Known about the structure:
Elements lengths: L1 E8 H15 L10 H18 L4 E7 L2 H22 L10 H17 L2 H13 L8
Helix pairs in contact: 1-2, 3-4, 4-5
Amino acid sequence: MEVVVGPVGATSIGAWVSFARRLLHSAGPGADVPSDAAASFDTYLDDWEALAAAGGDVTWATDLEAELAEYLVYAFYRVAKDVNEEAGKAAVVPDEAAPFYWLLVGALLDALAAEGGSRAEFAAHLREFWPGDTDIP
């Protein structure tokens, strides 16, 4: 399945990468990510960091096996849920990182929904309950 995010400002991607790396490598909720998912997240963060270095508006695209995407999206959701619960009413995702974050979440859920069947149901459920103060595009 194809996931496409963008166009979005490279500064937003860079801000997201900085925030996500701190979260993923902290003693907080990011520490609960399974090691295989964390390794995948690190690979994507490396890709996005290189993309952010390009500057301007950029688009990121990748192809994923649907089963792997479902697994990684669920791990991503759990971290987002735990971080938001821990923060209470405080904003979690930095303002500068939010455009990329919300486009990424929306693109992942859209790609899963396009797979149909149980993956579409899974995406619809996560879209309804994804934590944060912004509607998913």
